[in-house]
Inverse folding.
DNA sequence: AAATCGGGGAT
DNA sequence: ATCCCAGATTT
């Protein structure tokens, strides 16, 4: 009975996929490199957002050797605006590892794949199934939702539920894992959607326990999170002889490796008391005269909200550290450096 | 187990 | 405004 249902599910899904599967840029070649790049970009990021980045990235780095040889600033520049920049740094590191430790040969085994930075169990399963057509399961947001509904799993999110979902995903994968896993993701994205699932168009409708129990809108269960804390910060556009000062953020942590106009936390009171503005900057290493506010930017991050106040400033005295992480750059030169979305808006405000 | 890590699309 | 996206890594 269970075996019959299993083959029933894969048969229905594969037939549906032939007629309704998405035509996506990374589904033309199935080379390990392009599958890998797409999988990393697609982590926590929607397909439509990824597509232009994917094209540009492969245009800049057509091979894993080209990626391995590239400077990190250029890799981050191609990633600029996509978010979760550790993905880009890990992708770059992993490319070097494959070129050096694996002689340029992309691994085709689970144990080797998960040694590469940025590749966890699900991305490894995706690479093995999509690039090599090996029968490995995946468990992304789409698959979690489809399986949770299909088997009416009422557990709260967490390790316990994940273990059950991995077991279901593994039990369902047929020999044509490439098409099956693609179909599972497409079904989740286009039919078994988070809100307003289109159960009338679902090939698994008659097998779906969630639909049978009218739970499709309630599943998967989610835990609610509290309000995000607000961080108020300032950034300075410091001028000196038609150039502006930028520095590189630490490679670890938030927006790691990106460049910025010096940014620090401030208290809201310091925004209004004109003369207090000189006290805003503690760690700059040199003295400036702070001018008027020129821009205010709000940005929501995963775990906090940012309110960023940008001020014009003029170099006064002293000197910043003389290393490659601190630069005076012309307006035209700013285009070479990778910035976060917020600081990209500052660049645009200065240029436009 | 919980926190960290971006930015935007959809509603 | 909220939810969530082809998750991984660190704490």
């Amino acid at each position: 009975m269970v075996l019959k249902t299993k083959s029933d599910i894969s048969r229905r899904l594969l037939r549906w996929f032939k007629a309704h599967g998405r035509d996506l840029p990374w589904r033309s070649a199935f080379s390990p490199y392009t599958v890998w790049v797409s999988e990393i970009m697609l982590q926590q990021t929607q397909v439509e957002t990824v597509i232009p980045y994917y094209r540009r990235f492969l245009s800049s780095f057509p091979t894993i050797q080209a990626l391995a040889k590239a400077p990190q600033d250029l890799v981050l520049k191609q990633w600029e605006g996509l978010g979760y920049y550790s993905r880009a740094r890990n992708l770059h590191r992993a490319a070097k590892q494959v070129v050096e430790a694996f002689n340029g040969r992309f691994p085709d085994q689970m144990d080797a794949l998960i040694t590469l930075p940025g590749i966890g169990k699900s991305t490894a399963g995706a690479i093995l199934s999509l690039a090599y057509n090996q029968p490995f399961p995946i468990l992304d947001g789409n698959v979690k939702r489809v399986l949770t509904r299909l088997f009416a799993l009422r557990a709260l999110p967490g390790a316990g539920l994940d273990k059950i979902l991995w077991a279901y995903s593994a039990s369902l994968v047929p020999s044509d894992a490439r098409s099956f896993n693609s179909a599972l993701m497409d079904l989740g994205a286009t039919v078994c959607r988070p809100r307003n699932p289109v159960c009338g168009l679902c090939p698994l409708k008659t097998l779906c326990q969630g639909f049978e129990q009218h739970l499709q809108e309630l599943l998967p269960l989610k835990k609610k999170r509290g309000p995000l804390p607000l961080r108020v910060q300032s950034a300075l556009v410091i001028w000196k002889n038609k150039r502006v000062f930028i520095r590189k953020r630490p490679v670890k942590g938030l927006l790691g490796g990106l460049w910025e106009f010096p940014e620090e936390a401030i208290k809201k009171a310091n925004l209004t008391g004109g003369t207090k503005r000189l006290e805003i900057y503690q760690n700059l290493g040199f003295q400036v005269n702070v001018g008027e506010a020129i821009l205010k930017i709000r940005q929501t991050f995963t775990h906090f909200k940012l309110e960023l106040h940008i001020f014009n400033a003029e170099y006064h005295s002293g000197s910043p550290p003389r290393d490659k992480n601190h630069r005076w750059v012309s307006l035209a030169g700013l285009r070479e450096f990778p910035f976060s979305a917020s600081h990209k808006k500052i660049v645009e405000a200065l240029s436009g």
In short: Chain A has two domains: 2-212, 230-351. DSSP finds 13 helices and seven strands in chain A. The domain at 230-351 of chain A is CATH 3.90.79.10 (Nucleoside Triphosphate Pyrophosphohydrolase).
